[in-house]
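User: Teach me something about this protein's shape.
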Amino acid sequence: MVSSGGDGLIKLWTIRTNECETTLDGHSEKVWALDTKADDTLSIVSGGADSRLIVWTDITKEREDEKRKAEEENVLMEQKLSNHLRFKEYEQALELALKLDKPHMALKVRLVPHLVYDNRFVLLILFIPINSLSGLDVIG
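Assistant: First, the predicted structure itself:
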């Protein structure tokens, strides 16, 4: 059920529970007219004293699909991260861990800048999985 009031708000109600599911706020004055259309998606058209006609479209399904797709991509990337760690591909694992915003899962990067090779300073980066650091003293 859809209702409107003098405050310019449109409310979508669940009849079974008598609860307001959502409130639509797009009018600055009283809403005078409401119409609904339900085909593939629910649409509501509202007209108010502010001289505006607004078409509201339900995008719940699209948002759920986007959320599900993002969760699936996240699971795939976490699996790739695990595979990179398992096969000691630490550079790719570090990159994925940062993309996933999970540095705690990824790697401990330790910089050793004291090496010299062919009269040039060399920066050696050791990639060590965090779970393999148990029992070791980490300096730095």
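Now, about its shape. The helical segments are 60-86, 90-99. Residues 2-58 form one domain. If you'd like, I can walk through any region in more detail.
User: That's plenty for now, thanks!
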